[in-house]
Design a protein that fits this description.
By secondary structure, the protein is α+β, with helices and mostly antiparallel strands. The protein has one domain. It has helices at residues 2-24, 46-54, 61-93; strands spanning 97-100, 103-108, 115-121, 126-133, 141-149, 154-160, 170-177, 186-191, 202-208, 211-218, 225-232, 238-241, 247-250, 256-257.
Length: 265
């Protein structure tokens, strides 16, 4: 009886081991990494446009100067970041397809397969991202790539120009940080398009309690140097510090006022 029981036990253990070994050869889908939010490719500079429309005449010269500076960057960045922002917005609300070996993919525009977003989990517990576009003019073109941590709280992007004919088509580099509970990203942007007249210019953007701050480094413009601009997102008052060190301020009505009358950091 004991021998029969021992034999049955050995057979049962062997079956269990065979099941475990067989299953271990199948790849288990790991946890999907966090998708970076749209704020990681967004800078909100609309305050200057909104305020300018409300007060088209007799605005403070300091406000006008700040508006020109941020608007130039706004046009440049929005032309580069519009499609990436769309892709992240769609990825946040659509399921990803797991392709194996730590790679997830999202495909948007199924009829034309025009946007493909992929995330690959690396051994360092970081995630490599790529977004490629296919259309009548582009074939699987790498629009941008980058890396971030697994929780998508910080990382960097590098963007490329499809119409570049120089040979190296890097256009814009963006470093970012984002808190899960905060929809506003903290960005550092650099113009890395070598043939662009603003090549080497950088912008740092931050928002804290409704106060936006931009640090601009103009390398080779008409008035090169470091500019510091800060303003209230809702009330529109603000301050600009010029490369020479002097400052100018405006109130909510966009009139020039003494800077010591403003509650700004």
């Amino acid at each position: 009886m004991k021998k029969a029981f021992l034999l049955m036990s050995l057979i049962l253990i062997g079956v269990l081991l065979a099941i475990v070994v067989g299953c271990s050869g199948e790849e288990q889908e790991p946890d999907r990494p966090g998708v970076p939010g749209q704020a990681t490719v967004t800078i909100d500079l609309s305050t200057f446009q909104t305020a300018s429309l409300a007060r088209p005449n007799e605005t403070c010269a300091h406000f006008d100067t700040a508006a020109v500076l941020v608007t130039v960057w706004s046009f440049f960045s929005q032309s580069v970041l519009a499609i990436p922002r769309l892709a992240f917005g769609l990825a946040l609300i659509q399921p990803a397809e797991y392709e194996g070996e730590g790679i997830w993919s999202w495909t948007f525009g199924a009829d034309t397969n025009n946007i493909e977003l992929t995330a690959e989990l690396l051994a360092s517990d970081s995630v490599e991202w790529q977004m490629r576009i296919t259309n009548s003019e582009l074939d699987h073109f790498l629009w941008y790539g980058g890396r971030c941590d697994f929780d998508a709280s910080g990382g960097w992007w590098e963007f490329y120009a499809p119409d570049d004919t120089v040979g190296t088509n890097e256009v814009l580099w963006v470093g970012w940080q984002q808190n899960e509970a905060d929809t506003t990203a903290h960005l550092t942007m650099a113009n890395i398009q070598s043939e662009n007249p603003d090549y080497g210019d950088t912008l740092d953007y931050d928002v804290d309690d409704g106060i936006a701050t931009v640090w601009l480094n103009d390398v080779d413009g008409g008035r090169p140097g470091k500019w510091y601009i800060t303003w209230h997102l809702n009330d529109h008052y603000g301050r600009v510090e010029y490369p020479e060190g002097n400052t100018g301020c405006w109130d909510s009505e966009l009139n020039c006022i003494p800077c010591d009358s403003l509650d700004l950091p």
